[in-house]
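To assess whether the prediction recovers the assembly geometry, we first specified each molecular entity separately, as shown.
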Amino acid sequence: MNSRPLARPLTRSLTRALPVTPALVLLLLFLAGPIAYCAYIAFTDLQLTGQAESSFVGFDNFRTAFQDEEFLNAVWLTLVFTVVSSLIGQNTLGLALASLMQRASKPIRTLTGGIVITAWVLPEVVAGFLLYAFFRKEGTLNAILDWLHLPSQNWLFTLPILAVSFANVWRGTAFSMLVYSAALNEIPKEITEAAEVDGAGGWRRMWHITLPMIRRSIGTNLMLNTLQTLSVFGLIWVMTRGGPGDKSQTLPLFMYEQAFQNSMIGYGTAVALLLLLVGSLFSVVYMRLLRTEA
Amino acid sequence: MTRTRKNARRLAADAGLLATAAAFALPLVWVVLSSLDPRADLRVKAPDGLTFGNFDAILTQDITFTPLLNSLILCGGATLLTVVCAALAAYPLSRFRSRLNRPFLLTILFATSLPITAIMVPVYALFVQVDLIDTMQGTIFFFAASQLPFAIWLMKNFMDGVPKELEEAAWTDGANSLQSLVRIVLPLMGPGVSVVTVFSFVMMWGNFFVPFMLLLTPDQMPASVSINEFFGNRGMVAYGQLAAFSIVYSTPVILLYVLIARRLGGGFALGGAVKG
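The predicted structure of the complete assembly is given in tokenized form:
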């Protein structure tokens, strides 16, 4: 033993690390592998047919993308979709629900929580149908508008991106609500009560006391919502297929169309790589936020 | 005076919540009423009589049972793989100090928030090359890998909550790591393991894009994809049947969620767990 002083710690740490191996193998083969492959074929002209004859084309795919009207349209729609449904919709509504729940009576709190969470737990495709039915010309929304004598319209044709954004708010608000409820429960009662005694009204209390105290939860929630929203595919696919035309075609749907309907895997992957880069950027910011929290 | 003010505020909060709840409930009410309605259409209305005809029509081998069985094989297999790999990987990360822990955990955390949707096109191309396209096992492996980062992260956090002292006794009795993991640590973190299991399963059960891309043969399709085909072919007219199918397909995940929410006291634990 004395002759090999290094061998023992080394074998020991290797045996200790052994249980990580299955997870590591899976992650390398099925996650890191595709990401590396993505970074490679984004620079080729690989097509769905003729696998053998792909060649390296440098930044061509990216140059094509930034001159492609349809791509710019998809970027714009993705921005609208993310800002409306995640930043404004899920986040604000989630915070509003969580703070109302602090004051509401228990049965109503439980009922509302149950309904909002059910919308969240439903499979993506089912949520898509339900909101497709809701927004259709002969659907519930127009029935209500008729009843109120307000003008109805064919939402999925006139404002498809807003319809899918609202669908995403319906489906995703529960997550923000849960995160904010947990954060609000951690604020000590004495602080809000002291502010109340000092005569601070509801909005001022919210702005000067509550929001600063939960700002880390706000950051975390915004990051996770945005990342989730960036990768929504099924919901939009079921409701509109990205249409009519390309009026609700966000980046994931654009990527799919290029790769499979137009058979340009290389180009589709270049778009995917851009999406992945934006995602990684958010991911890094999110990790920063978690670190300052700890 | 403060009492009346407090009451008024509670009433206002109740009213606000009820209004939101009503708006959120509309699509859910539609699906329940339509599934029982012999002449369902797209809007919320009182059914023209109650019938189980819609359920009868869809509870056949082709429409419901085969896709649900496929979903079960796919998501069950991938969940099992995820949970076993995550538990094994979390153990050394939680129990032993190593210079590699921090970089590994940071990479894992980074991977939890990557948009998986974005890599589906390259995964498809890769699976074609290595002949894993249109296979259950290939899809199971990919599902497991995509869920692993979050599962490892959660599992490690739950495992940190189990005091190390309890294992030390077992170590002195000569138990190895695997024995103490299986006999001592995992039983003590039962709720944690069930959260990881149910969460992984629910995520995969509802996932549409992964099987949509990686499977091609119709009789291998899980419910998430087959329900979409059904919608495209028949659902446009048979709304009642579509609603019934939606309910049959959604019920397992709702029940599972209720199960863990109960166990953890009100569903808020998942929100807390995600916060890290």
